[in-house]
């Protein structure tokens, strides 16, 4: 859907817009040829030599290793989820749902408030 929306903006080009969109699509709609073309352009433009080092750092002293920080962070998340799941919860989550009444904390957006109060 995103490819359709973005490529349809090309149809705004005067005189050649519709033909150019069909050329980019590789047919009359977004299909496998379109996705192959987009992937090829993506690989040719973004995955070139040096594109994985956007800051241009050449020494390893300026870089952080991922492993210790990743495992500490994931260990904390797993610990909270497995051993203290209620730590980040709210007491309202334990109130049984009642489909016939709306909680007082839920209010409509302000432009619709006057319409719904009438």
UniProtKB/TrEMBL annotation:
Gene3D superfamilies: Cytochrome Bc1 Complex, Chain C. Its cofactor is heme b. The chain crosses the membrane at residues 69-88. Residues 1-80 form the Cytochrome b/b6 N-terminal region profile domain. It comes from Papiliotrema rajasthanensis. The gene is cytb. PANTHER family: CYTOCHROME B. Binds 2 heme groups non-covalently. Keywords: Electron transport, Heme, Iron, Membrane, Metal-binding, Mitochondrion, Mitochondrion inner membrane, Respiratory chain, Transmembrane, Transmembrane helix, Transport. GO terms for biological process: mitochondrial electron transport, ubiquinol to cytochrome c. Belongs to the cytochrome b family. One of its GO terms (molecular function) is oxidoreductase activity. This is Cytochrome b.
């Amino acid at each position: 859907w995103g490819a359709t929306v973005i490529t349809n903006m090309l149809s705004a080009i005067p005189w050649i817009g519709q033909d150019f969109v069909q050329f980019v699509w590789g047919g009359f709609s977004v299909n496998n040829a379109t996705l192959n073309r987009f992937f090829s352009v993506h690989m040719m433009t973004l995955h070139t030599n040096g594109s994985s080092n956007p800051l241009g750092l050449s020494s390893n002293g300026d870089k952080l290793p991922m492993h210790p920080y990743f495992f500490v962070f994931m260990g904390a998340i797993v610990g909270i989820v497995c051993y203290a799941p209620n730590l980040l919860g709210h007491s309202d989550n334990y109130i049984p749902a009642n489909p016939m009444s709306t909680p007082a904390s839920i209010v409509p957006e302000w432009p619709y408030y006057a319409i719904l109060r009438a």
